[in-house]
């Protein structure tokens, strides 16, 4: 079998804020077409890792490649990469003064070259894609439920038909049923749109339902594997994270039928 292509490749990453070292010689890779979960204790630098990959924070050292391009040093590679991804950060981060449809059209406007009529049509398509009714388009974010706002944020992340989707705590703040529905939506979209997904989450149900592999941030580095593989490791944080009663229940539910 041919080796899977890495759509993201981070090597030798060092992140430091003042004297606080967050990542030290960290390697992280994501294969095209997989859903990679990112977990780790509070403050281990999960969100910062995402922000470094998308160019919002510059690391102290290391190499970051997206789609094979050196996004830290090559502006053209960064432009190409930026056009290839969509991002859903916590809370959906919608502009409260814009309607949902206008929010979805923000990335389209930034790219330019599309008529308003086409953008209106595209916004309707994106709403349908994430399971929102057409009448959500003219509403303001404050008029939607938390779950609907997340979906609207996802619709905006999908505005430019990305190959790559970054999700930071997508189910945070949702009730268990809302979170399970959102997990299912992500998995369905990943398959139907052939997306690669990088998802920071604390939610074990999401990890089981959505991810193919998991990167755990421990000791300033990444440990990567399937959930079953990580559960086997004798590392204190991983043990307490995966071996709690709740974790065992979730993992038991996920065990393949044999
Ligand atoms: N721009 C910044 N300047 C200074 N310190 C920062 C900055 N961004 C993050 N940090 C620090 O880096 C560390 C990692 O932050 P990050 O938000 O990535 O954590 P996290 O793993 O996502 O945690 P949590 O699960 O609590 O959200 C924290 O100690 C945070 O205070």
Automatic annotation (TrEMBL):
Q: Which domain of life is it from?
A: Bacteria
Question: Which keywords fit this entry according to its UniProt record?
Answer: ATP-binding, Nucleotide-binding, Transport
A single Pfam family, by name?
ABC_tran
A Gene Ontology molecular function term of the record = ATP hydrolysis activity
Cite the InterPro entries for this sequence: AAA+_ATPase, ABC_transporter-like_ATP-bd, ABC_transporter-like_CS, P-loop_NTPase
Q: Which SUPFAM superfamilies is this protein grouped with?
A: P-loop containing nucleoside triphosphate hydrolases
> Sorted alphabetically, which PROSITE patterns does this protein's record hold?
ABC_TRANSPORTER_1 (PS00211), ABC_TRANSPORTER_2 (PS50893)
- Residues forming the ABC transporter domain are 8-243
List the signal peptide residues: none
Name of the protein = ABC transporter ATP-binding protein
**Organism the protein comes from:** Oceanibaculum pacificum
């Amino acid at each position: 079998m041919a080796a899977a292509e890495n759509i993201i490749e981070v090597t030798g990453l060092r992140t430091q804020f003042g004297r606080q070292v967050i990542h030290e010689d960290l390697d992280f890779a994501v294969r095209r077409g997989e859903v990679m979960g990112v977990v780790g204790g509070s403050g281990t630098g999960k969100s910062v890792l995402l922000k470094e990959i998308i160019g919002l924070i510059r690391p102290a050292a290391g190499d970051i490649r997206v789609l094979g391009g050196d996004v830290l040093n090559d502006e053209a590679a960064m432009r190409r990469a930026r056009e290839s991804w969509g991002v859903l950060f916590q809370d959906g981060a919608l502009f409260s003064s814009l309607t949902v449809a206008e929010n979805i059209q923000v990335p389209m406007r930034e790219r330019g070259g599309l008529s308003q009529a086409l953008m209106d049509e595209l916004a309707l398509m994106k709403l349908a894609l994430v399971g929102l009714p057409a009448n959500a388009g003219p509403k303001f974010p404050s008029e939607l439920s938390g779950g609907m706002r997340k979906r609207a944020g996802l619709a905006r992340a999908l505005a430019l038909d990305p190959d790559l989707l970054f999700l930071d705590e997508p189910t945070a703040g949702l009730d268990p049923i809302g979170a399970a529905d959102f997990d299912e939506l992500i998995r369905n979209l990943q398959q139907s749109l052939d997306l690669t997904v990088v998802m920071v989450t604390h939610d074990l149900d999401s990890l089981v339902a959505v991810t193919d592999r998991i990167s755990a941030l421990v000791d300033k580095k990444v440990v990567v594997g399937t959930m079953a593989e990580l559960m086997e490791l004798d590392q204190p944080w991983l043990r307490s994270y995966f071996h709690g009663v709740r974790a065992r229940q979730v993992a038991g539910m996920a065990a393949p039928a044999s």
